[in-house]
Automatic annotation (TrEMBL):
Residues 38-62 are annotated as: Disordered. It comes from Candidatus Accumulibacter phosphatis. This is Methyl-accepting chemotaxis protein. Residues 139-198 form a coiled coil. Keywords: Coiled coil.
């Protein structure tokens, strides 16, 4: 098995892991008797397919509803995505496989130059040539990991439904607060308009009263002035009658 992997690596059809490279440097290459091996080694180098990255995807921008973040702090964008597959498998209790499914997928990626039937025969030949692993190990590992991922999807769906429910409740609360606040403000506006109307009426009444008082004061002052003038004229009769001409007043 190791010799065949080394041969594929030399043909640049697969990429060995760090452990496999160390093992290859410590042991000589061993050929696997298999039809078409030399042709495989001479086959043109196919483009290596990009492997799925376990790095978390960039989280979307955080939600702009601070009250929503308070209502469901565990359901933000970071909590819904970007979980490493290794963490998902560990949480689901997937046991360590002698030959993980990802390792077989990496091998299959390196054999894309072959047709599907030839790839299958090559893998089965490696399985038969190496007693350290069996294809059933990969099948079992793949089934367990698929089940773990399906369960993760169900949990994600449940979290999203919970988020939708809480969001709906929160929006209803926001609208209720808005309606109550709007009603209270409109009531205050109506009361202020009534107060303004009363103040305008009171000011008009007080203005009328002040102006009436001013008119009365003017009339009173005019009457008093006429009365005083009449008394002055009456008193002037004495000096006019008895004071000698040219005498000082």
């Amino acid at each position: 098995m190791k010799g065949f992997l080394n041969l594929l690596a030399k043909a640049k059809l697969i990429e060995l892991s760090e452990d496999e490279r160390q093992a290859a440097s410590a042991e000589p290459l061993q050929g696997i008797p298999m039809a078409g091996t030399e042709a495989l080694a001479e086959a043109p180098e196919p483009p290596l397919h990009a492997q799925a990255s376990g790095e978390p995807a960039a989280a979307p921008a955080a939600s702009a509803l601070p009250s929503l973040a308070e209502a469901c702090p565990d359901l933000d964008g970071d909590a819904l995505e970007g979980h490493a597959f290794e963490d998902i498998f560990a949480a689901a209790g997937v046991p360590v496989s002698p030959y993980p499914a990802e390792k077989l997928l990496r091998l299959l990626d390196g054999l894309r130059a072959m047709d599907a039937g030839t790839r299958k025969m090559a893998v089965l030949a490696m399985d038969a040539a190496d007693d350290n692993w069996q294809i059933s190990d990969c099948l079992s590992d793949a089934d367990l990991k698929i089940a773990a991922l399906e369960d993760h999807k169900r949990q994600l769906s449940a979290q999203l439904q919970d988020r939708e429910r809480q969001s709906t409740e929160l929006v209803d609360q926001i609208r209720q607060v808005l309606d109550e606040g709007t009603a209270a403000i409109r009531k205050q506006i109506a009361e202020l308009e009534q107060l303004l109307e009363r103040e305008v009426t009171r000011a008009a009444q007080e203005t009328t009263s002040v102006e009436a008082g001013l008119r009365a004061a003017r009339e009173s002052a005019a009457r008093e002035t006429r009365r005083v003038d009449a008394e002055i004229d009456r008193l002037r009769e004495i000096p006019t009658t008895f004071k000698a001409p040219g005498a000082a007043h």
